[in-house]
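Hello K.,

You asked for the raw outputs rather than the summary table, so here they are, unedited. I folded two proteins back to back in the same session to keep the settings identical. This is the first:
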Amino acid sequence: MRFQIWFSRAAVIGALLALCACGSDNPAGPSATRVVLKGTVLGAPTSVFSEAAASTQSASGGKITVTVQEDPSLTVTVSGNGTFEITGLPLGSFTLVFSRDGVVLGTVAVTGVQPDAEIKVVVKVTGNHVVLVSLEMGDEPAQADNPGQGNAKACMIEGGKVGSGIELEGNVASGNSSHFKMTVNGNRSGGLVDVSANGASFQCKGDKTSSAQCKAKVGDGAKVHVSGSLDSCSQNAAQVTASKVMVQK
């Protein structure tokens, strides 16, 4: 009788151990973690972090949807104020696909995803394209890749902060007074900065040349000092809206 009781207890313990073993086949699978991504889609280039800028509606189309390329079941529609959230994302890496009315606007790839990570991403819709503004994982920048933009870990302009004022001095590489690309003095920037100067005032340093005459001097090779706001910035692309352009002698 004692043998039978001992055997029964051993059988129960064995069964429990078997159940535990079965449940541990995939301890690192997506269901064992809770990776959360919170995103913002900006729709207007003039006021980067305002609610109006975050509107995802446009005269040319409907709402924007975000889908995880590796798992199409993970898809959300961006809200009216430009925000979205996706949970249960895979570990390691994944790609976000932004589309509107079935047309792909762009993608953002994220790598180095750890268990229980909270990821924050901000993108801007410009026409029919998506531009990555920022991507963070916890307190540190996450590693991201965007086709044609390379690794977007940080702003290519030293000290540049999206949504803040900025002062840049350098030379016009190409373009005209309305829209030009410039090199920045002192190796402050890792590449050409895209400057929109449609609404800027123009002044020539050290003389009384009229604004119109000064504006006409902006061309290839011109030395300029630009004051304005940094609209977007990644490791190899930056866009500035100028409020004032000072043309140097």
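The second followed immediately with the same parameters:
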Amino acid sequence: MADVRAFFTTYCSAFIRQDGPAIAKHFANTIQVASDTGDDVTVHVATAPEWRKTIDHLLEMYRAIGFGWAEATALTCEVISPRLVHAHLRWLLQDKDRQPLYEFDALYIMARHTDTFRIIGIAHNEIQRYRRCLAKARRP
């Protein structure tokens, strides 16, 4: 469990720095993402280069809402085997003044191919929360 906490600490730090290459290092060569958009669930499978473009797009989205800080407010972890872990995180995104933007949940499937874990799958409910936040940010 300590290595999972350490993993998400570096993952979170990379988002705070808005460091695309550092974020990408937390992912496997292929990743599956399921997103609840509020209207539907989309499922996307991406290779590392495709996912890197998605990370860059996500960072652009975050800049559009004044993102400055991310914090995992809750973490539960289920060890499936020494090489497979399922983690559930509750994320709080904040602006540069540490004021709340929104919260969302994400489930991560992580695999350890070497000494460190890599994310191989994510399911999350962030999209509809992001859209509401963006709509507020665009209001005069």
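The mean pLDDT is 94.

Happy to rerun anything if the numbers look odd on your end.

Regards,
P.
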